[in-house]
Amino acid sequence: MPERILVVDFGSQFTQLIARRIREANVFCEIRPPEALAEGLRGEPPKGVVLSGGPSSVYGEGAPELDRKLLSFGVPVLGICYGMQLLALGAGGAVRPGKREYGRASLRVHDSGDLFHGFGGEPVQVWCSHGDHVDEPPPGFETLASTPDLPVAAFRMAGRPVYGVQFHPEVAHTPRGAEILRNFLFRICGCSSDWTPGAFAARAVEQIREAVGGEACIAGLSGGVDSAVAAALVHRAVGDGLTCVFVDTGLLRKGERALVERTFRGRLGTRLVVVDAATEFLDALQGVAEPERKRRIIGERFVRVFERIARDLGSQARFLVQGTLYPDVIESMSSGGPSAVIKTHHNVGGLPDDMDFELVEPLRDLFKDEVRRLGRELGLDDAVVGRHPFPGPGLAIRVLGPVSEDRLAVLREADAIFLEEIEAAGLYDDIWQAFAALLPVRSVGVMGDARTYENVVALRAVTSTDGMTADWYPFEAAFLRRVSARIVNEVAGVNRVAYDVSSKPPSTIEWE
Ligand code: XMP
């Protein structure tokens, strides 16, 4: 068991970012809800506890509280924003409600001892997002830093490793925030950077074995990095108990099935079953235009196919392995979760209630870049690890509006040209994801002196580190001109090409 930090989630939209920053320092951390704090402190105690921010006011009705026992364990504590306010309140101090402060602030450090080691001198930029704040250090606490609007931007309990910061060290807009967190981890908690992809793999393998026992598992393999890494982990855990299934949904890109077969057959060390289910997916999608319905239909079809395969194999496979990542979970979660529903990812909210499987989702807490590191650790080829993400619902959510074989065929050709040109220009690895979408409108054009009234293709290419935020890729004009000319000339039925210059947020990466 690696050393661990416990992150207590009071509902902040940044809780996962805190966890990421900690893991980037190669320290393992777990996120727990406030009710599970006592349980999280049992057994081998964590090296430290971080209390996240949250949307509540400490005085609000039903606001989450801090288990007072925490301070009696003697473990180092860092409260961030709401977490700091809870510490202040628990120590008999006051929290001043209602003074909203969002955005950048200039932090002056008064004590560059442990938490702010290396921060003497000039003020540094920090980022705030709070309604309430602490005006005076509670009894027994001392002020470590302040901003023009916050007399107590950071405090410490005298003689104890208990700290609070009112700003958010975990966000990118606090440029030296990672340093503050590292000071907490290494100077205050005494952590030793022992959490690496190798350590994660070993732990995940152990947990999978425990969950699955000796039973058979089926892994849906899409050809993308997530499902490949999930399958590789489960294969390590259960060996021949795993069967990988690649479903040809009829919603794949040009040449995808052949590529996946070539890449994976005989490579993962497991059986690979390829299922042709195009007719059943397309029939189920007939006339469906609404993106959420498309995802649900596809999520259910996948499960039905897997159930059938499990029966055909004569195995009693009870477990279905999915490469679900943390962003899929966040964006699919409804109220009560940390954020609003953005899209019901087909493999999360799109699953039928009556399915025969229990899920094995070893990557559910990871972001894509972490999965890629893990994939390398597991020895997967760079070609697999570095592939652009491709959503499970495939081209169904890139043919906007109702899906048909004809429209899929048009999209497939346009998309293949775009990707071919990106590879030829040596840009593939600079881009997080690139694809074409077929818009549900027709436009007027003129070709060979005649009027045309045909399809519009939108091209989308973005940069990102985890798919949660993204920016459009700034191709050179000559590149776009070349791709546009090729698509209009080579793909029958397209007379216009548009390039999507929207970031996420406010747009999303996929159009549906
Ligand atoms: P959005 O469009 O939400 O996409 O900005 C973020 C990332 O998730 C992929 N995506 C999906 N993947 N099932 C998946 O497996 C889905 O339903 C789904 N919707 C979006 C998208 O391609 C991008 O990489």
Account of the protein in words:
The structure is a single chain. 31% of the residues lie in helices and 21% in strands. It is α/β, with parallel strands linked by helices and 512 residues long. It has a 9-stranded mixed β-sheet, with helices on both faces. Strands 12-11-10-13-14 form a 5-stranded parallel β-sheet, sandwiched between helices. Strands 15, 16, 17 and 18 form a 4-stranded mixed β-sheet that branches. It starts with a strand and ends in a 13-residue tail after the last strand. The model is unreliable at 334-339 (pLDDT under 50). The structure holds xanthosine-5'-monophosphate (XMP). Xanthosine-5'-monophosphate binds at residues 295, 331, 342-343, 345-347, 389, 391-393, 433, 467, 504, 508-510.
**Average predicted confidence as pLDDT:** 91
Rg over CA atoms, rounded to whole Å, is 26 Å
Shape by Cα distribution: globular
State the distance separating the first and last CA atoms. Answer: 42 Å
Q: Low-confidence segments, ≥5 residues, pLDDT <50?
A: 334-339
Number of helices: 14
Number of strands: 18
In helices, the fraction of residues equals 25-40%
